[in-house]
From TrEMBL:
<protein>
    <submittedName>
        <fullName>Kynurenine formamidase</fullName>
    </submittedName>
</protein>
<dbReference type="GO" id="GO:0019441">
    <property type="term" value="P:L-tryptophan catabolic process to kynurenine"/>
</dbReference>
<dbReference type="Pfam" id="PF04199">
    <property type="entry name" value="Cyclase"/>
</dbReference>
<dbReference type="GO" id="GO:0004061">
    <property type="term" value="F:arylformamidase activity"/>
</dbReference>
<dbReference type="InterPro" id="IPR037175">
    <property type="entry name" value="KFase_sf"/>
</dbReference>
<dbReference type="InterPro" id="IPR007325">
    <property type="entry name" value="KFase/CYL"/>
</dbReference>
Length: 227
């Protein structure tokens, strides 16, 4: 086995998530709750004081942390998380250096490698935005422009990942990354971290969620095995 590199943000109580603003200006914030459902002290009497166990309760919206979008996230009758074959979640990967992009200067076709280098791969964009995780700056992020998204789709990309809050330009209401990619069966992983360790290296990318029926998205343990 080669070197294993963890690409996942830590899932924890009160973690940052999306902020969704409704037309009336109301903002809904996504987060997670992680707490003991049954503590060691509470369970010890069940075992005559000879053993004790903790059971954890976790509550969250599924689009939080480092997570995977299934086609159902965009299309109501499309495949859910449970329906995704594992073979579509374990792919040869490539990291594209997008550190020159900003919220005002998106990544363009000129920043991408030749199409043959992208075919059948997990294409992961390193904006370097994971350095802002947990800060207000994280909510204003760089993105890939429409022409570059079309280029990636036409090149045969199998999975698209970013180390930022969203794969799409927040001002583009069509949400082309989600609309085009998920419509073509190309999965999306958001909120990656640590991609700098993979630049210029050969690796297999893994993004494995629980097998959850009717889930449109779900957190993953994302990692790479470097060959």
């Amino acid at each position: 086995m080669g070197e294993i590199i963890d690409l996942t943000q830590t899932f924890e109580d009160g973690m940052p998530g999306f902020r969704m603003k409704a037309p009336d200006g109301t903002v809904r914030a996504f987060t997670a709750s992680v707490r003991p459902f049954l503590t060691h002290a509470e369970s010890a009497p069940n075992y005559g004081g000879k053993a004790s166990f903790e059971i954890t309760e976790v509550r969250f919206q599924t689009s939080i942390g480092t997570y995977l979008d299934a086609p159902r996230h965009r299309y109501p009758d499309a495949t859910d998380i449970a329906g995704l074959p594992l073979s579509s979640l374990i792919l040869d990967g490539i990291v594209i250096d997008g550190r020159g992009a900003t919220p005002d200067r998106p990544l363009s076709v000129a920043d991408l490698p030749p199409a043959p280098d992208l075919k059948n791969r997990a294409v992961l964009i390193q904006f370097g935005w994971d350095r802002h995780w947990g800060k207000e700056t994280y909510f204003s992020y760089p993105y890939v422009d429409r022409a570059a998204l079309a280029y990636l789709k036409d090149a045969g990309t199998r999975l698209f990942g970013v180390d930022a809050l969203n794969a799409d330009n927040p001002a583009d209401l069509e949400r082309p990354a989600h609309t085009w990619f998920l419509g073509a069966g190309i999965h999306i992983v958001e909120n990656l971290r640590g991609l700098e360790a993979l630049r210029g290296r050969r690796f297999r990318f893994y993004a494995i969620p629980l097998k959850v029926r009717d889930a449109a998205a779900f957190p993953v343990r994302a990692f790479a095995e470097v060959s």
